[in-house]
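step=predict obj=Queuine tRNA-ribosyltransferase n=379
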Amino acid sequence: MAVLSFELCGKDAASKARAGTLRTDHGTIETPIFMPVGTVGSVKAVSQQQLKEDVNAQIILGNTYHLYLRPGLEVLEAAGGLHKFMGWDRPILTDSGGYQVFSLAGKRKLTEEGALFQSHIDGSRHLFTPESVMDIQRVIGADIIMAFDECPPYPSDYAYAKKSMDLTHRWLDRCFKRLAETPDKYGHTQNLFPIVQGSTYTDLRRASCEYVASKGAVGNAIGGLSVGEPEEMMYEHAAHCCEILPADKPRYLMGVGTPWNILENISLGIDMFDCVMPTRNGRNAMLFTSKGVINIDNKKWEKDFSPLDDGIGSPFSEYYTKAYMRHLVKAKEILALTVASVHNLNFYLWLVKQARAHILAGDFNSWKNEMIPVLKTRL
């Protein structure tokens, strides 16, 4: 068993972008990286074989809240953890469930002890505390686990944002304490990332970054962005956080985002991203490509027999044509969900791989500035 390690391999001279290597007990991750979201132990409409062979995902996400409710800890522990349960031998990161509890506005109550909430499945009541969330993530067994935090909504007034941040910090101390008291379960090291909060207030973000940095964790996350604030505000706070969080540790911006969001945040010094956008939008007929964004439902694609995308070096995305994909969507064929999801994940992983290559080549910033207008093009 080895604690997660991070090595910087290169930096872009014209921006803060960097390329690195993360090493976990389940494998190596090259950054910058995008992590497909497998909320309940499954990336929607995509098999584990496809994640490996077609997408080549280096790491995926699970979610504490959802896995705790279903299939439940008894099943996960009997299986030997999430890796064995879902048949995935590469790294996994689990979100703590803080964002999901936040999303249950009206069905949850926050106290110093933790968050009391009602299950979205059957209305049953549950209590998440920093201690119980660490225990649950021990049972799940992910390589990277997240601290239990509160994600304040946007907009939040200053008093609420500060109160929320202070609570998140106190909960963080309890997460570290609990983790130190309990051993890893399945023969591999679990690595805790704290989460920066503070809403859209610069002084609170600074205070939270400094508090998180003082913990000396193996990696750090930035939460509470991409929750409805303008893009420029997200970039402003991400940049500010990157100035304070340790440069020798990976930085994870949670829940972001569009392809152009990812490139802009890479240029600010972010290393890790996740978002449901490629799969969720794909299931709704939106395809991201190296030439721009396609609504494959449009009639203009009815007789277009060109590949979904021949610019990303993916045999999968070259195999299916736009006309056939539109037909699948119109016929409400289940295969449409899989093809769109796999293609979009292919594109996202291609994009961060290209970003890494351009960082190492020394021309990332100019490439990024040329690429973003193309990515935003509506075809």
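step=describe
Residues 334-361 form the longest helix (28 residues).
step=end
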